[in-house]
Design brief:
Number of domains: 2
Shape: globular
CATH architecture of the largest domain: Beta Barrel
Number of helices: 9
Number of strands: 18
Mean pLDDT: 78
Order of helices and strands: HEEHEEEEHEEEEHEEEHEHHHEEEHE
Strand content: 25-35%
CATH class of the largest domain: Mainly Beta
Strand order of the largest sheet: 1-13-10-12-11-14
Oligomer: single chain
Length: about 375
């Protein structure tokens, strides 16, 4: 007899007995459908952005209409438009796809690997729950937006049609388990089910989860009942048993795209910064404390601001600082770098300086 089938039959009989004795509620469980085909299709969700109307106007121009590239498997569409995401490390991921239609709130969905690259602390959330989530800067062809909250790592979820949900005995917002076959096979727990009449049944994971299990768009997985497995709370080993981290000096690269730099500069200044002025602009950092825009890490020379915006400068608390990037390191090869409260050494420049043997000293007295 097939060993797997034998185990399933034993589990089924045990669960049935527990149900008959009233120890568990079988009405809302998948186990009553053990004989049914529970195989479903997978969709691997790459990093993407949902925009509200206000932010579409800022990023692409007033009244701009998103252009449909292709329809998605479930309601919605991929747009021709893409944006650049800039994180606290001043690194960027460019050409990130926008999905439509527009939403009431802008939401950026990333994988954990993306968050590490950008330096964003994004929580695992269901779609639409963005309160207190991660922040970033979105840069488009016409402007830039500081997103105070809205960056999440989407939870594992399963779209289901109403008919399929009834067939499997599954309810909206129920958590189920999904088993993945193959050499990288595993079981995903805590998969949230979302039920709607216009949904097609599709298991959604991000690229990190997909890569871990060798999943691609169209991979077939199976809804299973792993309730016999005791749930575990996240834990950490004692400090003396934590494996050392492998030193990692890799990086994506500092922002070089002139359009990206120009828009980051302009969001703080409130006026366009020309391409010709970018080189001079990025040599200074302005910290404004009186406007919401000050929350972005910007590199602007206040001398380049238009005269009609002089009030912005006068009414702000401005601190000029020296910014040292990778391109500046040759100047410090012999003297070394002294970092004070008025000197900013970018993370990538710091890593490269260490690699080149350039001495870095920190003095904040």
């Amino acid at each position: 007899m097939d060993t797997e089938q034998l185990i399933r039959d034993v589990v089924k009989n045990v669960l049935l007995k527990l149900s008959q004795e009233g120890l568990i509620d079988s009405s809302s469980s998948i186990k009553q459908n053990q004989g049914k085909d529970r195989k479903i299709v997978t969709g691997v969700s790459v990093r993407h952005i949902h925009l509200c109307r206000e932010h579409i106007d800022i990023l692409f121009g007033k009244g701009y209409i998103l252009n449909i590239l292709r329809e998605l498997y479930n309601p919605g569409y991929a747009c021709k438009e893409t944006l650049t995401i800039v994180g606290p490390k001043l690194t960027a991921i460019q050409n990130v796809r926008v999905l439509g239609p527009p939403r009431s709130k802008t939401q950026v969905e990333l994988a954990k690997t993306d968050c590490i690259i950008l330096g964003i602390d994004a929580p695992v959330r269901e779609s639409g729950n963005v309160a207190g989530s991660g922040s970033c800067v979105l840069v488009g062809p016409k402007g830039a937006v500081y997103l105070e909250e809205g960056v999440i790592r989407a939870n594992r979820h399963l779209h289901m049609s109403t008919a399929d949900a009834e067939f499997y005995g599954i309810k909206d917002n129920q958590l189920v388990d999904i088993r993945v076959p193959g050499p990288k096979g595993l079981t995903f727990n805590n998969v949230q089910v979302r039920v709607a009449p216009d949904f097609k049944t599709e298991f959604h994971v991000d690229t990190d989860d997909g890569n871990a299990a060798d999943l691609v768009n169209g991979s077939i997985v199976e809804i299973v009942d792993a309730s016999c497995i005791t749930a575990l709370e996240p834990q950490m080993a004692d400090s003396d048993k934590i494996p050392p981290t492998i030193p990692d000096a890799s990086f994506v690269g500092e922002i070089q795209d002139p359009n990206v730099l120009k828009n980051i500069c302009s969001i703080a200044a409130g006026v366009p910064v020309s391409t010709e002025n970018i080189k001079q602009a990025v040599s200074q950092v302005i910290t404004t404390t009186t406007t919401e825009k000050s929350k972005v890490l910007n590199k602007v020379d206040s001398n380049n601001l238009a005269s009609n915006d002089s009030n912005l400068v006068q009414n702000s608390s401005l601190t000029k600082k020296i910014l040292i990037t990778v391109s500046d390191l040759d100047k410090y090869a012999q003297t070394g770098i002294t970092v004070t409260k008025d000197v900013i050494l970018s993370p990538l420049a710091k890593d490269e300086a260490i690699k080149r043997g350039i001495k870095v000293i920190y003095e904040f007295n």
